[in-house]
Amino acid sequence: MTEQKNTPEASSTIDETIARILAAGEKAPETSATEIVPDPEFATEEEAQRRRILSDRARELAESAEHTEYDGEQYDLFERRSLRRVEGLSTELEDVTEVEYRQLRLERVVLAGLWSGGSAAEAEYSLRELAALAETAGSTVLDGFLQRRATPDPGTFFGSGKAVEIKEAVAELGADTVVVDSELAPSQRRGLEDIVKVKVIDRTGLILDIFAQHAKSREGKAQVELAQLEYLLPRLRGWGESMSRQAGGQVGGAGAGMGSRGPGETKIELDRRRINQRMAKLRREIAGMKPAREAKRANRKRNAVPSVAIAGYTNAGKSSLLNRLTDAGVLVENALFATLDPTTRKAVTPDGIGYTLSDTVGFVRQLPTQLVEAFRSTLEEVADADLILHVVDASHPEPEGQIAAVRTVLAEVDAHQVDEIVVLNKADAASEHVIERIRRREPHTAVVSAHTGEGIEELKELISASIPRPSVELELLIPYEHGEIVSRLHAEDAEILSTEYQEAGTRLSVKVRPALAPELERYQV
Ligand SMILES: Nc1nc2c(ncn2[C@@H]2O[C@H](COP(=O)(O)OP(=O)(O)OP(=O)(O)O)[C@@H](O)[C@H]2O)c(=O)[nH]1
Ligand SMILES: [Mg+2]
After folding, report:
1. Taking every annotated instance into account, which residue ranges of this chain make up the domain Hflx-type G (predicted)?
2. If both were cysteines, with which of 98, 201, 440, 457 could 205 make a disulfide (CB 3.0 to 4.6 Å apart)?
């Protein structure tokens, strides 16, 4: 995490960049046969002129700010800059294995997306989110492109004109990575890389990168590595003499030079086998870690402690809500996927019923299937919960899209039949109108602000009413010498309906969980 990312300046630059990208995307869609909506206002003479002036000036500024006329023509610098890109690239291509290559920190990136239907606003959210993802991964967003095109080019994803435009921007800005806002087929990524001459990462690769950076626990790390290898396997691309350097590496690397035959293919095969072996090992490890967690879960089940899972889109405020409800003090960050490792905390309803509350990994549109697979055991805990608090950032311009994306993932792990409360968070920053809109559609909602505490008490009541409650009603008379039973009733989450101190002992009217009832029989009146 770099410091600058959280400063207002940094985010306003991002906003400006995005505004610029969108303006450009809207006003100047590439003229191509597949263009969907011909924009009647596209490229009026005046506009074309303005754009030309702007870009000329930008270039001029860039060149004149750094040097004066005393510096001469700066051919060397120009050459060095163009050379540096090429040099950097050729080094990467020759010595770096696919795994290492992919794991190089993305530093200076150019975003590129296809706008293939849907509204301009949707294209905007997606691009904004991609920028946020890139920032979270630690990169600086330099510029971006949107191409209006009904279907991606099978070879290079973008049309050839746009691809060249991206290449030029990359060279001019000194970018080292192009991030594409979709999942690319391996061949498309290769095709595009061959044109833009720098590393191309797709949305899936970017999300995997963030997960890799954020994973803390042994299980989380293993899960992410498994997902990365799964993603990598069909995308192996040889980069020259990489194999020999790879021998002691943890993860298998790529093999043969591109297009090489014979021995080269054997190398890729070898690598594939090694990756498969590593994946099998990781799967065993992950399976081995499951019992500990399952034992804990079984223990909770046996004691019939209700479990509540917090789920929701990334950055919705899940961890903040957990902290608000339980003082858990878990990490809260204005970054995507701040939380990967589930945290479980004890909580108590206002009337003293204990339950567990778990924070989980956030979801995102197009959450890579490899990740859903790898995190299945974590996500299954959500499916196993008695209640899901589906946290929604109500201050987001399009929360419905996020709700739908979360439900898609929940359905994938069979968590869609679990009772759900839609918790509209960030009410302090949300518009009344949006909140009302969602409340009309959703039967069970709570409006809260984890920041101000608004609505938190009501949410606690709602949780209390929604979790399985003790159901066996008993009338007990507990002699004073058995005071520990009374304490136990409190500890074991009995619902105490009334207490009366009589001569023979404490007279209690309680509701307990069925498991506890037999032990209390002897005190029944
Ligand atoms: N204005 C406002 N901001 C909030 C509120 N709750 C959380 N946030 C902010 O939203 C950002 C994300 O909060 P987190 O609690 O980390 O969100 P999360 O859902 O756990 O995110 P991930 O773990 O990354 O998926 C932080 O910058 C919080 O300060 C709220 O009620 N109001
Ligand atoms: Mg979190």
Report:
1. 306-471
2. 201
Q: How does strand 307-312 pair with strand 199-202?
A: unpaired
Q: Which residue CA neighbors atom 7 of ligand 1 most closely?
A: 317
Between the CA of 479 and the centroid of ligand 1 the distance, in Å, is 50
Q: Average pLDDT of 243-252?
A: 34
**Cα distances (angstroms) measured from residue 301 to each of 24, 248, 307, 310, 413:** 56, 45, 9, 18, 20
304-466 fold? Rossmann fold (3.40.50)
The CATH number assigned to the domain with range 472-523 reads 3.30.70
Sheet of strand 140-148: strand arrangement: 140-148, 108-115, 177-180, 199-202
Residues flanking ligand 1, CB < 6 Å: 312, 314-320, 332-334, 336-339, 362, 425-426, 428-429, 449-451
- CA 392 / ligand 1 centre spacing (Å): 10
Which pLDDT score is estimated for 207? 87
Q: Are 268 and 256 in contact (CB under 8 A)?
A: yes
Band of residue 17 on the pLDDT scale cut at 50, 70, 90: low
As given in the structure block, the two tokens for residue 378 are: 């974590």
Dist CA 139 CA 5 (whole Å): 9
pLDDT digits (tens, 9 = 90+) for 418-443: 999 999 999 999 999 999 999 999 99
Q: Which of 421, 394, 390 has the alpha carbon at shortest distance from 407?
A: 390
Domain boundaries, the chain: 3-214, 218-289, 304-466, 472-523
**Cα dihedral 18/21/26/31 (nearest 10):** -160
**Domain 3-214: top CATH class:** alpha beta
